[in-house]
Amino acid sequence: MLDRRCLLAGGAATLVGCAVPRAATAAGPATLHDFANRSGRVFGVAAGDAVLKDAAFGDLVFRQAGLFAPDYALKFAALQPRLAPYDFRWPDSLVDRALQQGLVVHGHTLIWNDDLPAWVGQLAPAKVGAVLDRHIETVMGHYAGRIESWDVVNEPAWLGSDHPGTLRPGAWADALGKDYIYRAFRRAAAADPSAKLVLNEAWTERSDFVGLAVRKSLLARVDNIQDKGLRLDAVGLQGHLLPQFPSDDAGFADFLHTLAERKVEIYISEFDVDDRSFPEADGLRDRLAAERTRSFFDAVLQVPAVTRVVTWGLSDRYSWMRDPSIMVADGLTRLARPLPYDDMLEAKPMRVAMAEAFARAV
Ligand code: G3I
């Protein structure tokens, strides 16, 4: 068992003499990516401009992770706020920094029926397909050979949708129906044959009617994509854990085994824990978040098809859950502490839980 001092010391501070699972100790205590690697997996972090603007945070991300994903700069709304020539300077600044630091880069996300600029929804339906094609060709062409994998389609499901089944409404689905999914994967395979193509979905980690319904729709979507002879290399399951809703990690692992029968890799693609429902009492909140993390990680890491775990952020300081527009919209006042490093960039019990789970999964 690895020394808990060292597991906890993997933050901005380091402890001399920590036992590390890799041969060299010159680089300091083992990183989360070191622990993931020992179990044959990749640990990644999604983040935004803070990795460039906050040197200490950037150092922490690029030291702890083996993969980086821009959390917004590669989205349609960021690249095409209006129909215009593409300007890649913003995402290039993030992608280039991650590559310079020796990380691999994941592209999030090409086609999503949310967060689209208004002009896309104002297009004549007959023109939407060409815009989808142009976007995928242009963006994947620009990053061919530099971005290893792409969320080709993000969050295709939406319960209560006015479309047949659980197809999420939005400009792509409204104009093309579910064919937008197949068109996107067909176009992506041609745009960069070297990139892994990913279908990324939310909510499946819940064990209530929402999670079970999305799991069922996701399996059907994977089968439909493959039945059309389209390449699908991986499925991303976001893993935004909401402890206020029912969860059954063993049942989730059973779902992962069922999904793995489709011969796809599985990425836990956006992990964090919304800890705002936990009682504050002297450290109990952080301990409960760590326990939720341990249980989830132990379950998913027993599935060999799970090859990647990505946290959505790395420090509470920059969590998306602290976006004021989201907090106001959700009527929330408590600041979330959903990630393995705190506001001071120090490791939390969650970081220990993650490292120990990776170590057990060897
Ligand atoms: O860059 C602009 C800035 O120029 C402007 O001044 C500012 C104020 O309007 O907005 C900035 O853009 C914001 C962007 O994040 C970058 O910070 C957008 O308004 C804001 O909507 C956007 O939020 C992102 C959200 O997805 C919507 O795209 C979050 O950063 C991102 O963490 C979140 O990530 C999603 C995944 O894509 C899908 N799964 C759920 C996950 C969490 O919601």
Quick summary of this structure?
The chain is α/β, with parallel strands linked by helices and 362 residues long.
Please describe the structure with a list of short key phrases separated by commas or semicolons.
globular; 362 residues; 14% strand; binds ligand G3I; alpha/beta
Task: Break the fold down into its secondary structure elements and pairings.
Layout: H1 4-8, H2 32-38, E1 42-47, H3 50-53, H4 55-64, E2 67-70, H5 76-79, H6 89-100, E3 104-107, E4 111-112, H7 118-121, H8 125-143, E5 149-154, H9 171-176, H10 179-191, E6 196-201, H11 209-227, E7 234-237, E8 240-241, H12 249-260, E9 265-273, H13 284-300, E10 306-312, H14 324-329, H15 349-360
Parallel strand pairs: 1-2, 1-10, 2-3, 3-5, 4-5, 5-6, 6-7, 7-9, 8-9, 9-10
Helix pairs in contact: 2-15, 8-10, 12-13, 13-15
The structure holds ligand G3I.
Ligand G3I binds next to loops.
* Arrangement of strands in the largest sheet: 1-2-3-5-6-7-9-10
Main structural class:
alpha/beta
Report the β-strand fraction as a percent range. 5-15%
Number of helices: 15
The radius of gyration computed from the alpha-carbon positions, rounded to a whole number of angstroms, is 20 Å
Distinct small-molecule ligands in the complex = ligand G3I
How many strand units? 10
Which runs of at least 5 residues are low in confidence (pLDDT < 50)?
11-25
